[in-house]
Amino acid sequence: MITIIAAIAENNALGKDNKLIWHLPADLKRFKKVTLNHYVIMGRKTYESLGKPLPNRTNVIITRNLNFKAEGCIVVNSLQKAIEVSKEDKNPYILGGAEIYKQAITIADKLDLTFVHHKFEADVFFPEIEATIWKEISREYFKADEKNNYDYSFVTFERL
Predict the structure, then answer these.
(1) What is the CATH number of the domain that holds 48?
(2) Cα–Cα distance between 77 and 61 in angstroms, integer?
(3) Which one in 62, 135, 144, 153 has a CA-CA gap of 20 to 30 Å to 5?
(4) Are 3 and 91 in contact (CB under 8 A)?
């Protein structure tokens, strides 16, 4: 089972200038809980925006730069290779960015998404979720509070 995990805005916005646009502690807490002890697959720009490997996970970085090195990480040059090196994990997670999501959405089994109920100016976007391919199987809605500035939902889709 290959799962894409992402936080996206109403207009499919993911980020701007290689950064997240919003801060939702509830989403970060859930992300950590869900991905802990799994392989996490990401593009080089996503890795660089994090600044270091995610602890207690096997970090797999995809880059075209054959000289790229990241201590404590596995570096590969394609999504296919990333999936191959992650095969001992029954459920690796794909963390993005936009280009990796675009490739992965064609092969993923599941989408684990946080919808931020707001529109943002962005320069990278999540691919369209096609209703003919994906079925929503769960949704939890939360109102903004003192820690989380926006209403949001945790939504899971499975491939039809």
Answers:
(1) 3.40.430.10
(2) 8
(3) 144
(4) yes
